[in-house]
Amino acid sequence: MSKSRNPRPGRFSGTMLSFAAGIVLAGALISCGGKGNESEAPAPAANPSGKPVDSATAGTVTGMIKLDGTAPKPKNINMAAEPNCAKEHSTPAQTEDVVPGDGGTLQNVVVYLKGDFSQYSFPPNSAPQQIDQKGCQYHPHVLALQTGEPLQVVNSDQTTHNIHPVPKDNREWNESQPPGAPPINQSFARPEVAIPVKCNVHPWMKAYIAVFDNPYYAVTGKDGSFTIKNVPPGTYTVTAWQESLGSQDQMVTVGPSESKTVTLTYKPNSGD
Fold it and tell me: Does residue 28 fall inside a structural domain?
């Protein structure tokens, strides 16, 4: 009857130590190399070898985003924990889920064209878009930019903030920004509508960033209007996106040097 042989103590100990060290190293790599810390190469133009849009034949799509009904009443934000921010508001700050515009319109709606732009080249803009943290709110509440376009985040408050975009298709990042700190500079490599932005320090702070690989987008302001210029002739879907009310679509055909007007209408609680 043969006897089982135990491994030599030294060999066993060395194997277990190596195994344990591997687990520790793997854990360190996971914690340090998480989604928020991945490096991301700058985004190239949508089609570097493509041609520019012929401005002589390009058209324009303009329009209005309407609200058919009464907007949900915003809620007051309690900033008692941040007196430096509370004093920035002459009246209590309010949530911005649905912000009416003038004359039954809607603000903060992202409007963009869906279509085949593969034959064209759209270099990203070099001037940075900016988000300011002021009065413990993000300004603007909704921002749109191109892939690779610089985003600059500043802190105008006398309290520490952090900006934490939570994308599905882009790299997640989360950076703290004390008072007086230099701007945070970032960009996004892939189209995405829209990326929620939060502050882990102040849970009421919310914003959205819409990212496109072409310049055919706009965000409605106080009058609810939008203008999309230099559109090559063709048939497109005009899509409006609102954070609480969802999306609306309408087809439009733009002829050479033609201007088309589109109106898209939301009803309260008509979201997807």
Answer: yes
